Amino acid sequence: MSPEAQLLNALAFAATKHRDQRRKDAEASPYINHPIALAQLLANTGGVTDPVVLQAAVLHDTVEDTDTSLEELTTHFGPQVAAVVAELTDDKALPKAQRKALQVEHAPHKSPQAALVKLADKTCNLRDIATSPPADWPLQRRRDYFDWALQVVQGLPAVSPALRAAFDAAYARRP
User: Fold this and answer.
1) Which residues does the annotation mark as catalytic?
2) CA gap 83, 95 in Å, rounded
3) Per-residue confidence band for 27, with pLDDT thresholds at 50, 70 and 90
4) Which of 34, 45, 92, 162 is buried most, with the most CB atoms less than 10 Å from its CB?
5) Are 43 and 65 a contacting pair, CB within 8 Å?
6) What total of structural domains would you count in the chain?
7) Backbone phi, then psi, for 22, in 5-degree steps?
């Protein structure tokens, strides 16, 4: 199967899994817009062509936020994609504060593929919060998110100067 077909299969899978989910912005935009934005940022700004990274980008929240299992991802997309998604998946059984602390702690140990997706994820999240923040997020919560995202990104292995510049530009819009 071609890399393009693999990516389209991942997009279709993610769209199905996230079909009833909405973003937290005031417009309640479709959730699938977020993973698509990551893949676009990786490909268009980062020049990423690795099909594993692009598939992991569109699938990165499926295990964490839907009924998808890592075994299901392995079956449909192979062990490499599933392994990258596993690196990006928070344990929802843990309290939110602990999950956030673990993202900072684990950032330096990410594989280059997972680091690319994590960097794109934080960049897209900052862009979204700056342009269309969650309706119930006061200013301090938005600022705290920006500062926490910076801690995560600062710990990541250096993987793409262009993507890091995109993150820095997004961070510069800190409310």
Assistant:
1) 64-65
2) 23
3) confident
4) 34
5) no
6) 1
7) -130, 155
